[in-house]
Specification:
alpha+beta; Protein Transport Mog1p, Chain A; six-stranded antiparallel β-sheet; 8 strands
């Protein structure tokens, strides 16, 4: 057993259990919000680097997202950790969607921070996403 901490409290988690929690932060209480930030956790394969994980995930995008178009990809630092990111658009439910995904590695845990919006709403909220990324402080 190990102690597990969430924002609301702590609890004991049996050995071997995996953290796949999701945090969703829409920019308004209306549904659907015009911009949201989602944090997910994933596990890297044995001996997989952050770049390996990132490339494996990106390869799947064109086949799973209609109208996929990569806009840019790069590297950055989030909370003093090396991160990689990609920005792209696709068409979902008849609407052009815009997404920026930032991935970083915390030991063998992959930490994904994703901003998503209907395309016209993305640019006006992109600076707020950058503020969120710049404010990260990871627990030790």
């Amino acid at each position: 057993m190990s102690e597990y901490r969430i924002h609301e409290g702590n609890f004991e988690l049996p050995d071997g259990w995996v953290d796949q929690t999701i945090n969703v932060f829409p920019n308004s209480p209306s549904s659907p919000a015009d911009f949201s930030v989602v944090i997910t956790r994933d596990n890297a394969y044995a001996n997989e680097t952050l770049q390996d994980y990132f490339e494996r995930q990106i390869k799947q995008l064109p086949d799973s997202l209609p109208g996929f178009k990569e806009l840019r990809r790069g590297e950055l630092t989030v909370g003093e950790k090396k991160a990689v990111d990609i920005e792209y658009t696709w068409v979902g439910k008849g609407k052009k969607m815009h997404l920026r995904q930032v991935c970083l590695m915390l030991e063998k845990l992959i930490f994904n921070i994703t901003a998503t919006a209907v395309a016209p709403h993305f640019p006006k909220n992109a600076a707020q996403f950058d503020q969120i990324l710049n404010s990260f402080k990871f627990s030790e």
